[in-house]
Specification:
380 residues, alpha+beta, Butyryl-Coa Dehydrogenase, subunit A, domain 1, Butyryl-CoA Dehydrogenase, subunit A, domain 2, Butyryl-CoA Dehydrogenase, subunit A, domain 3, 3 domains, 4-stranded antiparallel sheet
Length: 380
C-alpha cells in the first residue's frame, strides 16, 4: 500500500500551507486569547473549496478522497488546532450525515450552501448526561400531525452557536434505546430552538462550542434523515470516518510541537552550546518524530481503506487512538524542551499542549477506541 501523496495532493497541501502562513499563523494566538471564532478566515476556506471537501462536484463540492482530506486537516492543525477542528467537524459530521443518509430533497436544499461555506453545519449527538454512552441520550422526537416535536438538549456541539444547519439525534422509540434513534435536520432560528455558546475551555478556544436546546421544536417529516430508528447505525458510520480526520488533526498538532521544538533547540543555548546538542533532548525529539510518523501511517492506512470501500472501523479507531496519544506526548515533550518559555503563551507549544487534549476525548475517548478495537478483534 502506497502512503505517499501524489502530485495533486502535494499541490493541495502546499496551497493550504501558504494560506495558513498568510492568513492563520499571524492571528491564531489572538483568536485563542479572545476565544473568537474567525468567521472571515472560515469564509475564505469555503471559497477555496475546503468546506465541501467530500461533497460531489454536482452539489458544489471538491469531491476529494479521504487521504486528501486527512492531509488538509493535518496541515491546518500544524498552525491552528481550533481552525482544523472547525474544518474537520464541518466536513465530517453534519455535512457527512446529510450527504450520506439524507434524502435527495435534503441534499439539494442544504449541501450546496454548506459546501460553499455560506452556511456552517453542526452535528448534535453528545448531551449533558451522555457522551461515550451515546445510546443513553434523552432528547426525544414524538410524532405529531405530519411531523415530529423535538425536546431535549445537546452539549459541547462544535459550530453550535455559529452554525446554520444542525443534524440532531433523538429518541423516537425510547424503549428500544439505540434501535430507536432517529436523526433530523434543524435550522438556526426555528421556533423553540436555541443556541447557547460555551466559554472557558482549556483548549481549542477559537473553535465554537455550544449547547443546543430544543423546546417543542416542530420538524416536518421531510426533515427526517434516514429511516425511523436507523439513526444510531448511521451515527456509527459517521464516527468511523470522523476518527480518521481527528487522527490527522492530532498528527498536525504533534508535528507543530516537533517542528517548533527542533527550531527552538537550535537557537536556545545552555552551558555554552545549543540545547540541541544534548542527548536527552535529541532522544526526546527522535521519539516524537518516530511516533508521529507511525501515527501518520496509521491515519493514511485507514483513509486508504475508506477510499477503497473496504472495512476500516478497527483501523480508524487505531489511528485515532495512537495519533491522539502520540500527539499528546509530543506536546508534553515540546513544552519540556522549551522549558520555562513553554509554560507561557508567547510560544506555540503552550497552545498545542492545551489543544491536543481534546483529541483524546472528542469523536470517542481513548477508552472507547480501545473498546472498539477489542470488539473488532474478538469478532474473528
Amino acid at each position: 500500500m502506497d502512503f505517499e501523496l501524489n502530485e495533486s495532493q502535494r499541490k493541495l497541501v502546499g496551497m493550504v500551507r501558504d494560506f495558513c502562513l498568510r492568513e492563520v499563523k499571524p492571528h491564531a494566538q489572538e483568536w485563542d486569547r479572545e476565544e473568537r471564532f474567525p468567521r472571515e478566515v472560515v469564509a475564505h476556506l469555503g471559497e477555496l473549496g475546503l468546506l465541501g471537501m467530500t461533497v460531489p462536484e454536482e452539489l458544489g463540492g471538491s469531491a476529494l478522497d479521504t487521504v486528501s482530506v486527512a492531509a488538509v486537516v493535518e496541515e491546518i492543525a500544524r498552525w491552528d488546532g481550533s481552525l482544523a477542528l472547525t474544518v474537520a467537524s464541518h466536513n465530517g459530521l453534519g455535512t457527512s450525515h446529510l450527504l450520506r443518509f439524507g434524502s435527495e430533497e435534503l441534499r439539494q436544499r442544504y449541501i450546496p450552501d454548506i459546501a460553499a461555506g455560506r452556511k456552517l453545519a453542526a452535528w448534535g449527538l453528545t448531551e449533558p448526561g451522555s457522551g461515550s454512552d451515546a445510546a443513553g441520550m434523552r432528547s426525544t422526537a414524538v410524532r405529531k400531525d405530519k411531523g415530529w416535536v423535538l425536546n431535549g438538549a445537546k452539549m459541547f456541539i462544535t459550530q453550535g452557536s455559529v452554525g446554520d444547519v444542525f443534524v440532531v439525534l433523538t429518541l423516537t422509540e425510547p424503549e428500544k434505546r439505540q434501535k430507536g434513534v432517529t436523526a433530523f435536520v434543524l435550522e438556526k432560528g426555528m421556533k423553540g430552538f436555541s443556541q447557547r455558546p460555551l466559554h472557558g475551555k482549556l483548549g481549542m478556544r477559537s473553535s465554537d462550542t455550544a449547547e443546543l436546546v430544543m423546546e417543542d421544536v416542530f420538524a416536518e417529516d421531510w426533515r427526517r434523515i434516514g429511516e425511523v430508528g436507523g439513526g444510531f447505525v448511521d451515527t456509527l458510520k459517521i464516527l468511523d470516518k470522523g476518527r480518521i480526520t481527528i487522527g490527522a488533526l492530532s498528527v498536525g498538532l504533534g508535528r507543530g510541537a516537533l517542528e517548533e521544538s527542533v527550531a527552538y533547540s537550535k537557537e536556545r543555548k545552555a552551558f555554552g552550546k545549543p540545547i540541541a546538542d544534548f542527548q536527552a533532548l535529541r532522544w526526546m525529539m527522535a521519539d516524537m518524530a518516530t511516533e508521529l510518523e507511525a501515527a501518520r501511517l496509521l491515519v493514511f492506512r485507514a483513509a486508504r481503506l475508506a477510499d477503497e470501500g473496504k472495512p476500516y472501523t478497527q483501523e480508524a479507531a487505531m489511528a485515532k487512538l495512537f495519533a491522539s496519544e502520540a500527539a499528546s506526548r509530543a506536546a508534553a515533550h515540546g513544552v519540556q524542551i522549551h522549558g520555562g518559555y513553554g509554560f507561557t503563551k508567547e510560544f506555540l507549544v503552550e497552545r498545542i499542549y492545551r489543544d491536543v487534549k481534546l483529541c483524546t476525548i472528542g469523536e470517542g475517548t481513548s477508552e472507547v477506541q480501545r473498546m472498539v478495537i477489542a470488539r473488532e478483534l474478538l469478532k474473528a
